[in-house]
Amino acid sequence: MQSRIKKLAQQYASEFIDIRRHLHAHPELSYQEFETSKFVQGKLTEFGIPFEVKATTGVVGLIKGKNPGSRIIALRADMDALPIKEENDIPYKSKNEGVMHACGHDVHTACLLGAAKILNELKEEWEGTVKLIFQPGEEKNPGGASLMIKDGVLENPKPQAILALHVNTILEVGQLSFRGGKVMASADEIYITVKGKGGHAASPHLTIDPILISSHLVIALQQLVSRNNNPFNPSVLSITSFNGGNTTNVIPNEVKLMGTFRAMDEEWRFKAHELIRKITTDLVSSMGGTVDLHIDVGYPCVMNNEKVNASARKKAEEYMGAKYVSETELRMGAEDFGYYAQQIPACFYRLGTMNTAKGITAGVHTPVFNIDESAIEIGMGMMAWLGSSLEV
Predict the structure, then answer these.
(1) Are 271 and 333 found together in one domain?
(2) What is the DSSP letter of 206?
(3) Residue 280 has pLDDT above 90, yes or no
(4) What is the mean pLDDT of residues 286-312?
(5) Is 339 one of the annotated active-site residues of the chain?
(6) Residues 130 and 247 in one domain
(7) Which of 12, 92, 299, 340 is catalytic?
């Protein structure tokens, strides 16, 4: 089976590189993936794979092998792009001004389509069912994964495990990486408006200075993690925006702050929310001001099931060779795949796309992001192999 998958991945690689290039040239923002969804539906129809549309632009295909109820594995890819103006000088540069596949979701979608074609062609040679999840809106709250789950993507049939790959721009092409347990952080957005009493900058005693209050607040919040969280439990609080006033001689009425809070432990995450609220309210009040505070609860942390991760890594080593499989580093970035991992056993792994010799080293979410496209053959083959052979 493994040799058959490798042969087909090699045979179809150029087809799916072209598909990746088409997707790259026609990116769409989160929850606006209408043409991308139609394209995916068209390919599944071409391959003879039945599908349903969920959460408006999501697509869910189903491939049944022998004894379809014996094992049910879900494979997921995200389809949305980012609001970034592409600066690459390539034939398949984005045709949608200000929108770019700068996080590799074009790669993910192409790999899953490639795996789908291979799995469907070989469905008489493997056992179980593979559910193909093409998901919208990974880049924007509330996260397309949460919407797909609400629309029943994990039911009828319910997968025993779900897997997804993600490009890794610091891992050389030809490599894969896996990690059990904590993989990526939760991500919550913080919005604070500190209100005081404005006035002439030469008469600060007649004002309640929201800039001074906010300055104290930023420093106080920076101590929240270092003095309340276990140092062995990764967590980050960053205030990233400080806006108030617009001239030299006027103390403003209010200051607006924004920031992000990241954690890898759900219990600490929500305890920290309460501490943020208490520190903010008490400090601002003690200095004479008032405050509006909103914490926009975002994606949960990504937790890989230890058993599923171990099984997937073992299969990857069989497929690639052990020397080409490594341990994924912890990341404080976030991924809405965490929603799936809260529901069923999950494994989120990395596909190397960097090629230092060719100068392909740009990171994700940058206007010059690109990949070594030989990663497509590896990605689609690996997904097909995991879908057909993962032990659950």
Answers:
(1) no
(2) G
(3) yes
(4) 97
(5) no
(6) no
(7) 299
